[in-house]
Structure formats: structure tokens, C-alpha cells
Amino acid sequence: MYVCICNALRDKELSEAARGGARTVADAFRRCGRRPQCGKCLPDVADIIEEARGDAPAIAAE
Ligand code: FES
Question: From CA 38, how far away is CA 20, in angstroms rounded?
Fold first, then answer.
């Protein structure tokens, strides 16, 4: 499923980035080789990171 329409970024890619060590939304985008644009997807991206890592909130930008 596409999570970030601006970047055609799928939940699977974001989960892999989180399992690979991404701790923040910004880090997940970086690991996927993309940059946030409109920002509408950021809360959903944070949720996916949290779920994949099973730890603290990932909303803090870095
Ligand atoms: S939908 Fe992700 S930055 Fe626009």
C-alpha cells in the first residue's frame, strides 16, 4: 500500500527502513532515498516506524 503519494513510497519500504535502524521519520525517508514533500503522510509514516520497531514514538524530526 502506498503511504506517501508524493514519493510513491510503500508501507513495506518504510517497515524495512525501520527494521534496518531508522528511528525517525526523516531517517526513514533518507534510508528510502526520498524526501518528505507535502507532509500529509508523516503521522502515518511515524506509526509504521513505531509498529515495525515496537518502540518509542518516531514523530520527532531529526
Ligand atoms: S504524501 Fe508524503 S510527503 Fe506528501
Answer: 25
Q: Is the CB of 57 under 6 A from ligand 1?
A: no
Each residue of 22-46: pLDDT tens digit? 999 999 999 999 999 999 999 999 9
- Domains located in the chain, CATH noted: 2-53 (1.10.10.1100)
Q: Are 28 and 17 in contact (CB under 8 A)?
A: yes
Q: Specify the residue with its C-alpha closest to ligand 1, atom 2.
A: 4
